Automatic annotation (TrEMBL):
Keyword Hydrolase: yes
Matching InterPro entries: AB_hydrolase_fold, UPF0227/Esterase_YqiA
Molecular function GO labels: hydrolase activity
Keyword terms of this UniProt record: Hydrolase
Domain of life from the UniProt record: Bacteria
Protein name: YqiA/YcfP family alpha/beta fold hydrolase
Keyword Protease: no
Length: 200
């Protein structure tokens, strides 16, 4: 059994939420394989990397289970609409091709130190990747905080209408007190194909 955690733009598997998720799985679901890939910094390289991870899981007949933060939330949406399954989205990016207009040019990933450029072509690739519709809103659990300084939570609230949406006052883009939601996150991911946590 697998769960795939997808981090956001300018982030890493070493991010706080990814690390908290790894620790939670190690304690409560050691029978699960949590995959936390390093997502390429530029979108042109992302599909091949993610498909290499996702396609064997789907081919095995196992339901796809994703956790995606920010840009990782957008990518989770993109994958679920291709392959089916369930996803938990944390302050997910909506229409990131609009957001990325402000990021054109050179950047350095603060975790890896890798330098890269965001180009107009990358923005158009993001636009082409966006699923036109949400086929099954119930496949998504969406965690939003109104204090998100990077994204307008109302865009995600509208896009994933009909899903399992939690909106909290305050907070920020990192999603304050994320660890408090991990039990509910994994309950949702395994609701249709139950996996019991290890008794403590």
């Amino acid at each position: 059994m697998h769960v795939v955690y997808l981090h956001g733009f300018l982030s890493s598997p070493q991010s706080e939420k990814a690390q908290l998720t790894q620790a939670y799985v190690a304690e409560h679901y050691p029978q699960i394989s949590l995959i936390t890939p390093q997502i390429p910094n530029t979108i042109d390289a992302v599909p091949a990397v993610l498909h290499k991870i996702i396609e064997p899981i789907v081919a095995s007949g196992e339901p796809l289970r994703l956790i995606g933060s920010s840009m990782g939330g957008f990518l989770s949406n993109w994958l679920i609409e291709q392959f089916g399954g369930r996803a938990v989205l944390i302050n997910p990016a909506v229409a990131p091709y609009n957001l990325m207009q402000d990021y054109l040019g050179k950047h350095t990933n603060p975790y890896s130190g890798e330098e890269f450029y965001v180009t107009a072509d990358h923005i158009e690739q993001l636009r082409a990747m966006e699923p036109a519709v949400i086929a099954e809103p119930a496949a998504y659990k969406v965690l939003l905080q109104q204090g998100d300084e990077t994204l307008d939570y109302r865009l995600a609230e509208a896009r994933y209408s009909g899903g399992d949406i939690t909106v909290e006052a305050g907070g920020d883009h990192s999603f304050v007190d994320f660890a408090d939601h991990l039990e509910d996150i994994f309950t949702f991911l395994f609701a249709t194909n139950p996996v019991a946590p290890i008794a403590q």
